[in-house]
Design goal:
Two copies of one chain form a homodimer.
Chain A (H helix, E strand, L loop, with lengths): L5 E8 L2 E10 L4 E9 L9 E7 L7 H6 L3 H7 L2 E4 L40 H16 L2 E9 L2 H12 L6 E5 L9 H11 L3 H4 L4 H4 L9 E6 L5 H5 L1 H11 L3 E6 L6 H19 L2
Chain lengths: 283, 283
Amino acid sequence: MHTSLEQISATKCFGGWHKRYRHRSRVLDCDMIFGVYLPPQAEQDASLPVLYWLSGLTCTDENFMQKAGALKLAAELGLVIVAPDTSPRGEGVADDPDGAYDFGLGAGFYINATQQPWAAHYRMYDYVTAELPALVEANLPVSERRSISGHSMGGHGALICALKNPGRYQSVSAFAPIINPVNCPWGQKAFGGYLGNDRAQWEQWDTCELIAGAQERLPLLIDQGEADNFLDEQLKPQALEAAAAAAGHPLTLRRQPGYDHSYYFIASFIDDHLRHHAVALQS
Amino acid sequence: MHTSLEQISATKCFGGWHKRYRHRSRVLDCDMIFGVYLPPQAEQDASLPVLYWLSGLTCTDENFMQKAGALKLAAELGLVIVAPDTSPRGEGVADDPDGAYDFGLGAGFYINATQQPWAAHYRMYDYVTAELPALVEANLPVSERRSISGHSMGGHGALICALKNPGRYQSVSAFAPIINPVNCPWGQKAFGGYLGNDRAQWEQWDTCELIAGAQERLPLLIDQGEADNFLDEQLKPQALEAAAAAAGHPLTLRRQPGYDHSYYFIASFIDDHLRHHAVALQS
């Protein structure tokens, strides 16, 4: 039996619809909300391809839909966009004891926690790679052709989801992704909390580590602002350049002079990413 | 002596810059923040035309810049966009005693209040038509060619600013404007508070009243969603259709089936408005 979707809003945009749905997640053991953009083509075509967008720290399903400026071209290209939340939510879901922005609620890191109390709900990897696509594909006018992208923590999420699941995604891209979480403060805090102290466990969720053993040479398209406040301490794209070069993995890393970490940066380049995904999804 | 501008942020977007400035407003007797988008052409051209955007109830200078999806085309067209706040702000500025969203802070209605305590600060009409343009034109790379647009309360603001100032704006447009505030609850509450009980005073700030005596036949471009929750009680575009027909004033009122009152609606049609203004500003 499929979990049912409760539609909580429907807003017309560029001839299509931005809708928000609530559903019970068995994987996360809580109610979740996700957003979807259905382009105008969904009126006639029940097998549209889907781009999954994974947002960054502190975001919900709404940030990308409101701020990325992606829906105009999605409407032209006939792309469905699905934007999940960034962590489990609700009463009974553990949060950082200090309410930090970079751990707990809004900071699931798209991994499966093994340590309590996190392991009870924080299984965002299983949610975004399996439960949510199954729900979307059972209930919305989409095909099983999927691509994935995201920003910062969500760029990390998009890259590990693609690298760990050969054949599941037609294409992958990221904006300012955390490409080497085992070697940066955000990742070390999150992985230490969710996964414990065994560094071998951490490496299973790290793009730079995964790329060496990738079974599929899916090209990585990455935009990184050179004025990003988090560039030197958290993001360090040169580590991915080195890992991709060592593995012979195709990487297009575009360093964008003057751009920061915000949605103004994402908006400036999202159309290039949508076209990249549309070519892969519709070929 | 010109009031100085304090730059509080600069974010690159579509090759140009979204900047926020703080300044002391003599008209409003408080510190104010406004946002500006400077397209890439501002690097070479110090006399770019300006579109003023007036936002709706509860907004600040940020909503339009983040959510309208306007900056891509503004960058292509070489349009500067200036987005002021929606009311005076800060300590000492009176607010609705109940903290209502539709009066006081975030709800200045772009008029000059005559009643205390409002008259001390609530002079948004003088601010957006005179003080702010003078400040912008003295400090930023712009010409004196101006257009004006806005949403809801800000659509009302754009229309009255243009109608009351023949020759000051090259073009005007609005999304879901409050076109007849003297005959709707939002307007009656605001005008009663800011202006007192003399209805003749109210009519000086009402688009349907002003259009009869307009000294300039500036065409009005208006988009109105037909699924707008405020359509029947607050917006009533048929009143403007009747007033424009009676006055022989050119009006293009586009009723957009299925669209609501949100920024998803604005984003869907903002490019049409930008092109409308660019033609007028650059001719």
